[in-house]
Amino acid sequence: TNTPTALIMIFGATGDLAHRKLFPSLYRLYKKGRLTDRFAVLGVARRSLTLEEFQESVRKSIVEFTGEQDGLDEFASHFYYQSHDVTDSSSYIQLRELANKLDEHYGLEGNRLFYLAMAPEFFGTIGDHLKLDGLTDTAGYKRLVIEKPFGHDFESAQELNNRLRQAFSEEEIYRIDHYLGKAMVQNIQVIRFANALFEPLWNNRYISNIQVTSSETLGVEERGRYYEKSGALRDMVQNHMLQMVALLAMEPPIKLNTEEIRSEKVRALRSLRPMSQDEVNQYFVRGQYDEGTINGESVPGYRTEPMVDPESNTETYVAGKLVIDNFRWAGVPFYIRTGKRLGSKSTKIVVQFKDIPMNLYYNTDEKLTPNLLVIHIQPEEGVTLHLNAKKSGSGMKTTPVRLSTASKSIDRMNTPEAYEKLLYDSMRGDATNFTHWDEVALSWKFVDAISAVWENTKETTFPNYAAGSDGPQVADQLLEKDGFEWWPVE
Ligand code: NAD
């Protein structure tokens, strides 16, 4: 059905994610009629709050992050709160009673969504208690929506997964990778599989290389404690970057359903060549930001950020070359790069096509630029195709031209926030844009081989890029070795 009914239990309901993303997304769904009046949200967090205080915090978040307040009182009246330390086993019984009451009051048919918007060290404990104390014992569906990071490496991820699987089946676990909720990430497969112009060219005969960039201008902010143990490789590559690579590299699914799409993504991840120690050193580089200037403002270096070791070896930037060992992609490098405190905020994919066999226009003053397909993911959304055309005027000179649908998504109401789509999908039971355990496992194994090398070799060049720059020089050299260069992020 299109208007799902459920009790949405948010663990961590006073946190940043709940206020910035989850409440506003639920409100937008409500306004679009995608949530009927048959829903309730039960917020759980440590702080003691009255019902009025909690509902007031919900209203404030909606006004602040959506700029709207239409029907807000009615919406907020669906929100309930329980102050509860998730490590305290006695309070789950109370939670169950409140859940049952809300279920009855709103006619929720026993459908339950448990959303874990809390630090990952609590995921296992919460999962155990939900089952032990009967919260998962319900007439309708029960689903667990779980935030990143899913583990710290393969081993810890597997341990967490085994534990959660005591209470939820794989089909009931919705692992969030919010990149998969982004409109343009979902558009990758449409561009590939709905266009005669691209589908036949999507292989090593016509594509020379693919570049995936995700750059941030923000630094580590208040997350130093977490980030010191994570770094860009675990925080960005294991999940978001590899997910985009999988969508670009996968074979066409035989059907557009969850199982088929995910199994093609799994196959793509299985084709990633595991990195030996030598390959890690050759194919992956890391960076750490120094002080610098971003948008006219001077910002500190990573090592002087709060909760960061003054001699930290943690990378805030990663660039790498991925090798996909299958017939379609043999010989085509997939380059990825991601980092904090770079000159601009941008996520995009550049597909560079091979040069045509013979350049008739080579004697003109401009060199032919290769054809590029750029998929802009954020903040711009859309696609740009770079072609060559005749330069106006006499003679046969060429000039690059662009066909572009890209635009800044100014009207936020019209481009649904990733979290809005993902919440809606999880309520409808569509797990396509969530990561299956097999994807998580393969991604960790790939990334673990790189961490293993990096953790044993102190990077003596850190810090090696200025805040506000394009990243470390080693990232440029990585492509130069192959005769390529990064296409600008602009
Ligand atoms: P936060 O620190 O702002 O909020 C944590 C919440 O957990 C608070 O509501 C707090 O009261 C509650 N909490 C902590 N200990 C508790 C306990 N023992 N018992 C009960 N409640 C307790 O964190 P956040 O930024 O909202 O992030 C939550 C999760 O979402 C994390 O896994 C994070 O990695 C992930 N995440 C956050 C963002 C974001 O934009 N904030 C983005 C992606 C992923």
TrEMBL record:
Pathway: Carbohydrate degradation; pentose phosphate pathway; D-ribulose 5-phosphate from D-glucose 6-phosphate (oxidative stage): step 1/3. The active site is at 240 (proton acceptor). The keyword RNA-binding does not apply. GO terms for molecular function: glucose-6-phosphate dehydrogenase activity. Substrate binds at residues 178, 182, 216, 235, 340, 345. Belongs to the glucose-6-phosphate dehydrogenase family. This is Glucose-6-phosphate 1-dehydrogenase. It comes from Peribacillus deserti. The gene is zwf.
